[in-house]
Amino acid sequence: MKGINGWGIFYRLQDSILYYTMYSVLARQMSIPVISFSIMFNHTHALTVDVPRKLTGTFQRRLAITFALHYNREYNRKGKLFMDSFGCSEKTNTKSVMGCTAYVANNSVAGHVNARAVDDRWTMLAYYNNAHPFSTAIVKKKCRPVMLKAMALVDACFANNAFLNYALQKRIYSGLFPEEKKQITDYIVYKYRFLDYNMLIDLYGSYEKALIAIDSNAGSEYEIKDEYGDHSCYRMMLKLMRRFGYDGADFNFENLDSGKRIQLANKLLRLTGASMDSIRKFLHLSVETKAKQKVHKA
Fold it and tell me: Do 110 and 148 fall into the same domain?
């Protein structure tokens, strides 16, 4: 699934948690087995197994509509969030399935965001036999009451097949120290993980062999038009925008007039060295604006 006009979607951790937990709930409800998954700045990928195309379409539409409803409410925006169509190709042999598994898992590696697929929390690869790969282990008897309350809320939501919307996330993270926030993020991802590790192991022979194969092969996907390039620039732009005072719902740049967005675009262009196309996607500028900027630069 890709953002309309290639525009950015996942600006904050909260956006990724909403999408991830929503995907988890719907996948369990609709019995969708997943063996590879990734969330990038303006698109997502998933490799499912033995899912009819019609059911895939139904699943994707439910996911897109529900996510956009919550996202638009949070960011005070209107209109479509994702492109109407989504790329979908069927794999019928083991080699092509392995290639697609590696391709999906290595999206953040290809985008220069992570060194390895296992370093990307959203692939869920790090959570196979580790509940806290990106934080210190939780010792409940040493936890503060606010942390215990946060974990209990996550448990209750998961037990009731409820995804973590923005309001719930605010309740969960409220009052936590920085390290506790890292711990609760790991707790959420581990609790809601939906990667079918057994299928992945059957495909490669073991979890360790799967990681070795994914590390050694970027994978390929020739049937789906995808976006390539350096996605680390988006992280750089996010840091700068926070320094400029933008946060929370401010990341709906569509609420800014075009003049202000052009001003920000020129500032980001000067400070980051990112391509104008990446800046256009980050600030939700039109394709026409990109063309004008190219002429202006020449």
Answer: no
- How confident is the model over 35-58, as a mean pLDDT? 95
Asked whether residue 83 falls in the same domain as residue 205, the answer is yes
pLDDT in the model for residue 219: 52
Largest CA distance in the chain: 63
Q: What is the pLDDT of residues 95-140, one digit of tens each?
A: 999 999 999 999 999 999 999 999 999 999 999 999 999 999 999 9
**Tokens representing 189?**
């991802």
- CB proximity list for 25: less than 8 A, separation 6 or greater: 161, 162, 163, 192
- Does 82 lie in the same domain as 210? yes
Whether residue 278 is predicted with pLDDT greater than 60 in this model: the reply is yes
- Quick one: pLDDT band at residue 289, thresholds 50, 70, 90? low
What does the block give as tokens for 82? 């994702």
Q: Is 79 domain-assigned?
A: yes
Same domain for 122 and 169, yes or no, is no
228 burial type by CB count under 10 A (0-12 exposed, 13-18 middle, 19+ buried) = exposed
> Would strands 44-48 and 34-39 be described as parallel, antiparallel, or unpaired?
antiparallel
Structural domain count of the chain = 3
Q: Residue 259 sits in which domain range?
A: 232-297
Q: Is residue 269 part of a domain?
A: yes
pLDDT in tens, 196-251: 999 999 999 999 999 999 999 865 544 444 555 789 999 999 999 999 999 888 89
CA distance 95 to 219: 10
43 and 69 assigned to the same domain: yes
Q: Which of 135, 194, 192 is nearest to 17 (CA)?
A: 192
**155 in the same domain as 108:** no
Distance between CA atoms of residues 238 and 268, nearest Å = 10
CA 256 – CA 262 distance, rounded (Å): 10
Whether residue 221 lies inside any domain: the answer is no
Q: pTM of the prediction?
A: 0.92
